[in-house]
Amino acid sequence: MPTTGILAPQTLLALACGLAAGGGFALLAVALRGLPPRTADEVARAERRRAEIARFLGQRSMIAVLLAVAVLVLTGWPVAALAAALLTFVWDKLFGGAAEERAAMARVEALASWTESLRDTIAGAVGLEQAIPASARASAPALREPLNNLVDRLRSRTTLPDALQEFAEELDDSSADIIIASLILNARLRGPGLREVLGALAKSAREEVEMRQRVSAQRASTRRSVQIVVAVSLAFPVGLSIFNSAYVEPYGDALGQLVLGLVCVLFGLGFWWMRSLSRIEVPDRFMVRPTPAGRVREAQDAGAAAPARGQGPVVRR
Q1: How does it sit in the membrane (predicted)?
Q2: If you average pLDDT over every residue of the chain, what do you get?
Q3: Is the pTM above the cut of 0.85?
Q4: Mutual orientation of helices 160-171 and 141-155 as an angle, nearest 10°?
Q5: For tag attachment on the chain, is the N or C end more exposed, with fewer CB atoms within 10 Å?
Q6: Confidence class of residue 27 from pLDDT cuts 50, 70 and 90?
Q7: So what's the pLDDT on residue 284?
């Protein structure tokens, strides 16, 4: 059977050379322009991210290789084997989410319990600096480590607003930002009414947990239906290639593999869209540290506003 000219070896070689040349020009542009400097927090976050990726790849690589080899032996389709390997790596992202939702609900519920404990501790005429370590002893497991880090910062003479800001960065939760912002304002202004504010915030957090539980219960059946649809969609072509190979014979050549790759991409986009529909949207965080460029702009704005407050510009002689 003659080879079609669509994906001939010369065409594949030309595509590979084009990709290599484009990647080389991109790396050259990055080398000439350089990368912007990163702060210590960004470097630490990148290190944690790399460690998570390495651990994730170590856990999934063997499963992905075995599944790809099995699909290649059963079907003889390299594109299907590659798609099976990629599906192994993104399975939790596409068809999981229940564990993440349960962890988020446990964190919000732990925040509500800790806020109530902090409110009751403050009721005994105890300052906020003393109430935080006392309330951390009986905290839920979801908050125990961040609260212990907060207590350690307070013991190392870190100011309470800065320690709470670090606490908010460690939790990385929009629900926690509202509670921590109230604590930071009270630590700076020392005004009354903190007990009432904490009580209202704890009540709001518990209402959020109840809402998430209802939504999660309603979506459990939908998530199971999506998993069944995905399993049938994946098992059907594999079964055809095993038990009725003549029906899927057009996928055996280069053009058929190209079409199969397009079909896999369309299925992947559909699965990703279904996953996005089942995700609970939460508000963005507002207690985010500004970037170095943002700090420079804030300093420039403060310097520009100084003459308007009666502070004349500094003149060097």
Answers
A1: Multi-pass membrane protein
A2: 76
A3: no
A4: 150
A5: C
A6: confident
A7: 75
DSSP state of 300: H
CA 177, CA 201: separation in Å to the nearest integer?
11
Answer yes or no: are the C-beta atoms of 180 and 164 closer than 8 Å: yes
Asked whether the predicted pLDDT for residue 165 surpasses 80, the reply is yes
Helices (H), the chain: 9-33, 40-75, 78-89, 91-95, 98-122, 128-136, 141-155, 160-171, 174-189, 194-243, 254-277, 292-305
What Å distances lie between residue 266 and 59, 67, 216, 287, CA to CA?
27, 21, 27, 38
Higher pLDDT, 104 or 10: 104
Q: For helices 194-243 and 98-122, give the axis angle rounded to 10 degrees.
A: 170
- pLDDT band at residue 299, thresholds of 50, 70 and 90? very low
CB crowding 258-268: b at 16 or more within 10 Å, else e = eebbeebeeee
Task: Tell which residue, 54, 58, 189, 164, has the closest CA to residue 114.
Answer: 164
CB contact at 8 A, 187 and 179: no
Query: Which range, of 9-13, 106-110, 204-208, 229-233, averages the lowest pLDDT?
Result: 9-13
Beta carbons of 195 and 175 less than 8 angstroms apart:
no
Q: Is the dihedral of CA 40, 46, 47, 48 positive or negative?
A: positive
Residue with tokens 């539980």, as numbered in its chain: 213
CB 115 within 8 A of CB 179: yes
| Tokens (6 digits) for 152 | 């350690």
**Nearest alpha carbon to residue 212 among 220, 224, 222, 202:** 220
For residue 226, what are the contacts with CB-CB under 8 A and spacing of at least 6?
A: 95, 271, 274, 278
